[in-house]
């Protein structure tokens, strides 16, 4: 496979991702089998492909909604502050909310999301995150469904970007260090 010039290597290929997404969907479907009113809240833009694949594998009925946040101004440097750019459309009070996020890095974004949604009094609140970089954590946040733990490197593809590029690569690849330094 020929990789784009900026991509160092493939960390997770299409098949590996698809298998894990199927497993997560099976687990979530089993856990919510007796519940109705499940809402998946995808975090734009990074989670859009993961959410699309995950939701189509669920065997429980559910709604899909989105929220858009920004924690990184452009490249890979965390500005610290999380900004709400677009809120969810659906009311979540009394309903089962599952936040779907692409990657857990410092933890600030998911922590902000969980606090924001908890204040809206959902019947239950859980998180499903595709990737986690444990070495980078600054704040502990609970993850109910995790796809993969990965090393501390900047990854792109399958929805994840660098400066809004590389989102539509079908695999998850490691960005060359010189690109983000
Ligand atoms: P946190 O608040 O530091 O946990 O950052 C989470 C957000 O940072 C994610 O939702 C991504 O948008 C972004 N992010 C962190 N690491 C990466 C990466 O390796 N590739 C792409 N985006 C990343
Ligand atoms: Mg994100």
Summarize the structure.
This protein is of the alpha/beta class and 181 residues long. The chain contains 4 helices and 9 strands, in the order βαβαβββαββββα.
Please provide a written account of the structure.
By secondary structure, the chain is an alpha/beta fold. The chain has one domain (14-153): Rossmann fold (3-Layer(aba) Sandwich). Helix content is 24%, strand content 34%. It is built from 4 helices and 9 strands. Strands 4-3-2-5-6-7 form a 6-stranded mixed beta sheet, sandwiched between helices. Strands 1-9-8 form a 3-stranded antiparallel beta sheet. Helix 1 (14-31) crosses helix 2 (48-57). The protein is globular. The two termini are 26 Å apart. Magnesium ion is lined by residues 43, 46, 102. The site of magnesium ion has 3 residues, from loops.
Describe the protein's topology.
Elements: E1 7-12, H1 14-31, E2 38-44, H2 48-57, E3 62-72, E4 78-86, E5 96-104, H3 108-118, E6 124-132, E7 145-149, E8 155-156, E9 172-175, H4 177-180
Parallel strand pairs: 2-3, 2-5, 5-6, 6-7
Antiparallel strand pairs: 1-9, 3-4, 8-9
The structure holds inosinic acid and magnesium ion.
